[in-house]
């Protein structure tokens, strides 16, 4: 189920962008409770029947996967044989890579400052990975971002135009350096999608945005058609969600699940990608 009850009557709902509904009752967004319970009331059009070959755990993972579908397909309008760079290799970034690969991307490049995350991304859905260089002393953030994009292009054989350029950027980190690097990196006429929520105000190379005639969009949650495609891609074995479930907890141990997610790793040192809490027995 989509964990947000939209009103169905406002301008955005009626125009097919219900993710922008101002009256949405979104689970776990105060004052609304989350979905940790035996029952959860939701308009029926936001609930989906899972195909027989999918588990309830797969079903729970449709929420983050739909964020990837919304950014890469619905807004990014990816086409087969394109090159995509995803900044941030957390759950949303990994799933964006998976969607890009499933929809026929030629190269899927993961960017992160954590080598372990990059190693995981390489084994999951990334064809290439990039660990940014260290920032020089006294270097401004924008100069650092420009240098980062230039080094990335040189090392990965990326160009500003043509078949070796980056068609689509999915920014899933929210870090200023990644936003700027993505705008420098993307091809002339390319598309940049902001998914990560982080630094609220970022200096943008606006001239570059205009001379390259970039398409820049914000991506918020998911809307019409995103859950359907997410379910279909997993049901058709084009995306495997199981490797992303790093931790599983019983319903009664829900507090421990939140603590583990907050800490980023469990007591045994294993890093958290997604922690799943079982339903009540
Ligand atoms: Zn509405």
Question: Explain this structure to me?
Answer:
This protein has helices spanning 11-14, 56-75, 91-102, 115-124, 141-156, 176-185, 206-211, 226-235, 254-263, and strands at residues 4-5, 25-26, 83-87, 107-111, 128-130, 166-171, 186-194, 215-218, 245-249, 274-277. It starts with a strand and ends with a strand. Helix 2 (56-75) packs across helix 8. The protein is globular. The chain has 281 residues and is α/β, with parallel strands linked by helices. The strands form 3 sheets. A 6-stranded parallel sheet has the order 5-4-3-6-7-8, with helices on both faces. Strands 1-2 form a two-stranded antiparallel sheet. Among the domains are: 76-218, NAD(P)-binding Rossmann-like Domain (Rossmann fold, 3-Layer(aba) Sandwich), CATH 3.40.50.720; 245-281, no CATH class. Helix 7 (206-211) links the parallel strand 7 and strand 8. The chain is 35% helix and 16% strand. The chain contains 9 helices and 10 strands. The protein binds zinc ion. Residues 6-7, 9-10, 12-13, 18, 21, 23 line the site of zinc ion. The site of zinc ion has 9 residues, from helix 1.
Which radius of gyration do the C-alpha atoms yield? 19 Å
**Number of DSSP-assigned strands:** 10
The pLDDT mean sits at 96
CATH C-level class of the domain at 76-218 = Alpha Beta
The proportion of residues in beta strands is: 15-25%
CATH homologous superfamily of the domain at 76-218 - what is it? NAD(P)-binding Rossmann-like Domain
**What is the terminal separation in angstroms?**
20 Å
Keywords: Metal-binding, NAD, Oxidoreductase, Zinc
Domain Alcohol dehydrogenase-like C-terminal: 91-235
InterPro entries: ADH-like_C, GroES-like_sf, NAD(P)-bd_dom_sf
GO molecular function: L-iditol 2-dehydrogenase (NAD+) activity; metal ion binding
